[in-house]
Amino acid sequence: MLSASSSAKELMQTDVVTIGPSDSLRDAMELMVDSHVSGLPVVDKKDRCIGVLSVTDVLGAEYDQAESALGADVEEMGSYYDPDSQQWESMRFVGSVDELPDLTVSDVMTHDIVSVSPRSTLREVAQLMLKQQVHRVLVMDEKLYLHGIISSLDLVRLVAGEP
Question: What pTM was estimated for this model as a whole?
C-alpha cells in the first residue's frame, strides 16, 4: 500500500503522451483531446524534456490571436475554467481548432518545468504541487529524461484507495 512516504516512482504514470517542440498547436490540441489530457510534456529529439504545453497555454495563444485579429473593441467573449488557477477566465472567442494560429508548440509552451526526481516522496510531490499551484508534476532525472508524470488525480485516487 502506498503512503505519503512512498516514492514518486511508485505512483507515477509511465504511459506519458508527449509532443515535440516543432509540432503545431493544432496537432497538440488534437493529441490532448484524443488522449484525454490537459497538458503534454515537450521533448526534444534526444528525448529530453524541455517544457510543458497545457490547455491554458493554447488558450492564451488563442486569446492573443483573437485580440490582434479582431481588435480590442470586439465584444465576442467566452469563458473557460483554468485548472491551474482554479478560476473562471474570460477570453475572446476564436473558433474551432482549425482556426488556431499557425504557431508551433515551442512558441507557446511553458519553459519552467515543475518536476521531481523518481526518489521524491509523495508528500514532497503534494507539497510542490500546492506551492507551485499546479495539477501535474513531471518525474525526471537530472539529465532531463522523463520517467513519468503524477497528476493531482493520481493523488486523489491514492487517498481514496482506488487503483
Answer: 0.77
* 128 within 8 A of 136, measured Cβ to Cβ: no
The domain made up of 8-160 has a fold known as CBS-domain (3.10.580)
What gap in Å lies between CA 102 and CA 91, rounded to an integer?
19
The H or E element spanning position 98 is none
| Block mean pLDDT (10 aa), the chain, length 163 | 90 96 93 92 96 89 66 52 62 52 88 96 96 94 96 92 79
Strand locations in 8-135 (E): 39-43, 49-54, 77-82, 87-92, 115-116
Instruction: Return the H-helix or E-strand segment holding 56.
Output: helix 55-70
CA distance 124 to 150: 12
